[in-house]
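lol forgot to send this yesterday, sorry. struct tokens for the thing we talked abt
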């Protein structure tokens, strides 16, 4: 070390005593507007998927509209390939940020308020609403067109809701998040508490794969690991949780995505690096997505027909979907961080509303399309109109009854000013909220 190097080293501040090789402290992290948008967009795409299912041709959903389109099924399949993996990467990143800033106690309290309570309360509220909306949709469809009224349908529909046979519905992701928060927060706490060389090895290993000499094999490594777990699925793609009994192969698969996000927070410069070549990654990912959708359709047909080459197609399909997911996630993250560099009121409003919209959207994806069942229009036109209507209704309810209320505190961390009822402004919420 020469004199200049010694002078620089002497002038450098010592590391904070709470620094840890796995998650070093960084007081000036700030808000990641782009990652906020990605997380919110993945939740809002849930409205697109569940509304589009009503218009799939052939029928694959509980309730179908008479005016259907094959494009709906293609749209659902394409979004399903990458949506939840991308969401869990974002959830892991922001979960690690929250743990770093609030510590174990604050993290546990915060996640209990934002995840456990919405899961429990939401399930008991949403399940009967869902059962009633499905009953209404079928009753409405069976009524003669000239006699259809909401009152008559209400009189004839069933108001029963059998909780004994209810699954987690679309709230399964909250259920799985509880597993991940418990596992990763506990592991991080133990590493911080007892330190040791293991934490340093983990951080050094991830940094080498993400930013260091081994970065060229980092993405292939996670693709291989993900592909291996994709091969455990029962059907092409990723199995859907339909029961409170955990699907462990699905939990382990999404744990890889969540874990990469969690570890990435300890190497936050990776987010800036992803801005380079972001549009190229997004283009490659989008191209792979088109190919993955085509292969998925062909694979499902081969599996259903029990073709002798179905197993080989299944393997190729699962590996391609894993590859597509990671390339798309990297591309979407980089592009979003390039585009959303500062706070935007409209974007921020949609980010705040996205949690409420996702929690409450499912009953409306049956109720609203059923009201327009008699609208004689092409399915490819009706579908986007219904998506917009479902979203607008939920936004109005959010603005009037959620954003400035105690429910808004539970979901968003604070009561926001609700124009035109009040223009009072309060402090901005913490970046993790």
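and heres what i got for the seq, position by position
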């Amino acid at each position: 070390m020469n004199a200049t190097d010694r002078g620089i080293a002497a002038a450098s501040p010592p590391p904070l005593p709470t620094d840890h090789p796995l998650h070093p402290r960084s007081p000036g992290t700030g808000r990641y507007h782009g990652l906020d948008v990605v997380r919110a967009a993945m939740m809002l795409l849930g409205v697109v998927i569940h509304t589009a299912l009503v218009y799939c041709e052939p029928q694959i959903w509980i309730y179908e509209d008479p005016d259907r389109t094959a494009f709906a099924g293609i749209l659902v399949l394409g979004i399903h390939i990458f949506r939840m993996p991308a969401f869990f990467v974002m959830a892991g990143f922001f979960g690690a940020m929250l743990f770093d800033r609030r510590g174990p106690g604050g993290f546990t309290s915060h996640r209990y308020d934002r995840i456990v309570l919405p899961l429990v309360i939401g399930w008991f509220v949403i399940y009967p609403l869902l059962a009633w909306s499905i009953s209404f949709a079928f009753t409405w469809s069976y009524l003669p067109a000239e006699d259809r009224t909401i009152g008559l349908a209400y009189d004839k529909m069933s108001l029963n809701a059998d909780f004994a046979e209810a699954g987690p519905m679309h709230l399964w992701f909250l259920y799985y998040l509880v597993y991940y928060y418990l596992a990763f927060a506990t592991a991080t706490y133990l590493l911080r508490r007892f330190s040791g060389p293991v934490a340093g090895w983990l951080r050094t290993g991830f940094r080498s794969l993400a930013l260091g000499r081994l970065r060229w094999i980092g993405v292939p490594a996670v693709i291989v690991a993900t592909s291996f777990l994709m091969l455990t699925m029962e059907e092409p793609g990723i199995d859907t949780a339909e029961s409170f009994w955990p699907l462990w192969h699905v939990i382990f698969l999404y744990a890889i995505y969540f874990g990469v996000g969690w570890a990435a927070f300890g190497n936050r410069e990776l987010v800036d690096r992803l801005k380079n070549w972001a549009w190229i990654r997004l283009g490659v990912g989008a191209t792979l997505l088109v190919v993955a959708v085509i292969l998925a359709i062909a694979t499902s047909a081969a599996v259903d027909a029990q073709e002798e080459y179905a197993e080989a197609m299944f393997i190729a399909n699962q590996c391609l979907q894993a590859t597509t997911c990671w390339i798309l996630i990297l591309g979407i993250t980089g592009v979003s961080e390039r585009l959303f560099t500062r706070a935007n009121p409209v974007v921020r409003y949609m980010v705040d509303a996205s949690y409420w919209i996702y929690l409450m959207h499912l009953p409306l994806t049956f109720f609203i399309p059923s009201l327009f069942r008699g609208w004689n229009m092409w399915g490819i036109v009706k579908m986007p109109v219904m998506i917009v209507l479902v979203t607008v209704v939920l936004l109005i309810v959010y603005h009037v009854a959620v954003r400035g209320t105690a429910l808004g505190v539970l979901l968003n961390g604070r009561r926001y000013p609700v124009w035109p009822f009040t223009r009072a402004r309060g402090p901005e919420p913490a970046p993790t909220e």
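The two ends are 44 Å apart (CA to CA). anyway ping me if u want another try
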